[in-house]
Amino acid sequence: MRWIVLLAALAMPVVAWFSQTGMFGPTNGAVSDQYPTLLVAAGYAFAIWGLIFLWDVLFGFWQLRLRKPDITGVRPWAAAGFALTAVWMPVFSNQWFLPALAIIWAALLCLIVAAYRASPITAPGGQRAWAAYPLGLHAGWLSLAAYLNTAQVIVAYRWLPTDNMLGWSLVLLVLATLLVLVVNQLLRGHFAYPAAVIWALAGMYVKQSGWDLPGAANIATLALVLIIIVVIQTVWLRVRAYRQPRAIVAAHRHRR
Fold first, then answer.
1. In terms of DSSP H, where are the helices of the chain?
2. pLDDT given at position 251
3. pLDDT value of residue 33
4. Domain that holds residue 218
5. What is the per-residue pLDDT across 99-142, written as a single tens digit (0 to 9) for each?
6. Sign of the Cα pseudo-torsion (124, 127, 130, 135, in order)
7. How many CA atoms lie within 13 A of 193 on its CB side?
8. Cα–Cα distances in Å, from 131 out to 68, 126, 156, 182?
9. Transmembrane segments in this chain: where (predicted)?
10. Burial status of residue 69 (CB atoms within 10 A of its CB: 0-12, 13-18, 19 or more)
């Protein structure tokens, strides 16, 4: 399983490179532009994939030498999340929207579980830096990307009105926020997950504040509000963990 994790991590940047060259069809960005939504972020925000891929690959190499039970339980979920992320790119490029939607949601689920299993209270610093943080960053970005993909499928198949998308876009954004707050709580506010979420919301604000679609200004404002909410929750979680570290660690050891 250790080598499968590494190979799956390496597959993501390789597939991404081929995808950007147009080998699988139109690039993901070109396909996305065909189906504009109120949940899309500015183009620069997607540069975070470079950091995600790099950190995931470093995790792949780091875990090769470890046989700890904590990491053993992470590997299948991480490998599945990486593989699904790689598969999503050519599937989306070919505009197979429903399979792509199922794949990105499955990848998000796998990476949330992997990040959660990699970030116990008692984890040493190395495990946090090379496992919990890269997996959390990946999960954080997908927490918003999955809803963006959902919005694009809605537009592509015209399941809901596309001339005025504000109503159902607000519903999706609220649902995304609820998911983010729950996962952030599960991960105890470690910085990587909320950092990716905040980066995505900031990119959404930049895009929508200069967008001419009806309701874009409302979404831009809401994105700023959500950034504040995520920051407040993260600070509260970190302060609580700082004030009660011994009690939390003792309770964790007692359960074990």
1. 2-20, 28-34, 48-62, 69-93, 97-117, 125-127, 133-157, 166-186, 192-209, 216-243, 245-255
2. 47
3. 87
4. 2-255
5. 999 999 999 999 999 999 988 655 666 788 889 999 999 999 99
6. negative
7. 35
8. 12, 8, 36, 20
9. 40-62, 74-91, 97-118, 139-160, 166-184, 191-207, 219-237
10. exposed
Two structure tokens written together for 23: 């080998």
Number of C-alpha atoms within 13 angstroms, CB side, residue 111? 29
Count of domains in the chain?
Answer: 1
* Per-position DSSP letters for 71-139, written without gaps between them: HHHHHHHHHHHHHHHHHHHHHHHTT-HHHHHHHHHHHHHHHHHHHHHT--TT--HHHIIIIIHHHHHHH
Name the residue among 217, 194, 195 with its Cα closest to residue 206. Answer: 217
Collapsing DSSP states into helix, strand and coil, what is residue 148? helix
This prediction's pTM: 0.91
Q: What is the pLDDT of residues 15-38, one digit of tens each?
A: 999 988 888 888 888 888 899 999
Instruction: Compare 98 and 120 and report the one with higher pLDDT.
Output: 98
Residue whose structure tokens are 């707050």: 181
Q: How far apart are CA 85 and CA 97, in angstroms?
A: 14
Contacts 24+ apart (CB under 8 A), 126-130: 126/62, 127/68, 127/70, 127/71, 128/190, 130/58, 130/59, 130/62, 130/63
Q: What size, in residues, is the chain?
A: 256
Spatial separation of the C-alpha atoms in residues 42 and 174, rounded to whole Å: 20
pLDDT of residue 248: 47
